[in-house]
């Protein structure tokens, strides 16, 4: 067992050592990220969406007094509402039918099964929201109107969920050989210990929390802020319609291709800690919806040409995003027999091993979009994110912080992924990087 443990620690999965600097970084992220969300809310609620005015007021008043005066307050109603929402989503996740899908081989050699019923859960949830709003049982702006209290609830929920995941990893791990310990409790809390924590055989924390309280909430929040804009001003702007359209496209794409999502880094590589637990429950519903929170309060009137320009950039980004991700999945799922742009796909056939000592085969595609750059799908995401932010105009930085966050996240991910793939595929990865030289932007980097 000791040898197996050492092998696991050395495998191509997540890192197994955290320096004091990494632990400090993790501690700072855990502390500062909830403050970031709260600052955004204060700026939107009290300072017209201006981070500069918010910072000036905080400096003038003193941070402690400023925080005491502006801190968002929880309500019992919002907390119960949120717990009911998570429970309903858990029931839909558990009981709705859906196709059986498979993830990716884990470093310890586990191949997990999932029921991918996300599209049905999204449809049922939105149909319920629409029907209850139409007959007047539900105020469609309910989420927007309770935003302050919900902000507190989701932060507390996410922090506790991450703690629960950390304890579970020690006392009841789902796949013990896929755990990673770094020796730093803070780093482990942030990055997670278990790769795919589950309750029982199928109830998967990552798929549930990312998809349901995270991504299903995304479009509901959009609709709620749209209703808020309408109730407050008596109209819905083109900018609000446009950003909501982009979000719907992205979210529906996610659920339509939920099977594909099982083979992305979130599921195959990231362990479940604060990063995903708090990230899915608190961060995603807040930061990813900044544009509608802004537009709901401060409408932006786009000219028709600028609306079309933004639409064109967003749709091009989405098309590239879907096409890249589809090419990779198609070539791998057909074991290289597929065609790309009318020609047989090109790839490098490679092998890698798992800690159970077995050797497996895989393909690294070198044609289509994947022949131009090793992460063209990230570039596509950035185009789409930029278009989403552009709907808010250029007056304030705050709604654009989503774009800069995505840029940072994807560049960091790119670096992590390249390191991991080099460990996993060794000489095959070197061959691949010689063949496809650009990391992100063809001809530049
Ligand atoms: P990828 O889907 O690109 O997955 C990377 C993995 O794919 C690698 O670890 C490797 O895994 C495999 N791979 C790498 N190169 C090749 C190749 N040439 N041929 C075949 N397989 C290859 O990245 P992500 O999972 O990070 O992202 C998926 C999508 O989701 C992207 O479009 C991204 O922009 C988006 N995204 C969106 C986020 C959001 O918050 N909106 C957050 C993160 C991502 P292996 O070989 O082990 O299978």
UniProtKB/TrEMBL annotation:
The keyword Membrane applies. It comes from the Eukaryota. GO terms for molecular function: 7-dehydrocholesterol reductase activity. Keywords: Cholesterol biosynthesis, Cholesterol metabolism, Endoplasmic reticulum, Lipid biosynthesis, Lipid metabolism, Membrane, NADP, Oxidoreductase, Steroid biosynthesis, Steroid metabolism, Sterol biosynthesis, Sterol metabolism, Transmembrane, Transmembrane helix. It is a multi-pass membrane protein. Its main location: endoplasmic reticulum. One of its GO terms (biological process) is cholesterol biosynthetic process. Gene3D superfamilies: 1.20.120.1630. Its EC number is 1.3.1.21. InterPro entries: ERG24_DHCR-like, Sterol_reductase_CS. The keyword Cell membrane does not apply. The chain crosses the membrane at residues 20-43, 119-138, 150-171, 235-252, 272-290, 302-321, 382-411. It is an enzyme of class 1 (oxidoreductase). It catalyses: cholesterol + NADP(+) = 7-dehydrocholesterol + NADPH + H(+); 7-dehydrodesmosterol + NADPH + H(+) = desmosterol + NADP(+). Signal peptide: none annotated. It is found in: Endoplasmic reticulum membrane. Pathway: Steroid biosynthesis; cholesterol biosynthesis. One of its GO terms (cellular component) is endoplasmic reticulum membrane. Belongs to the ERG4/ERG24 family. This is 7-dehydrocholesterol reductase. It comes from Cyphellophora attinorum.
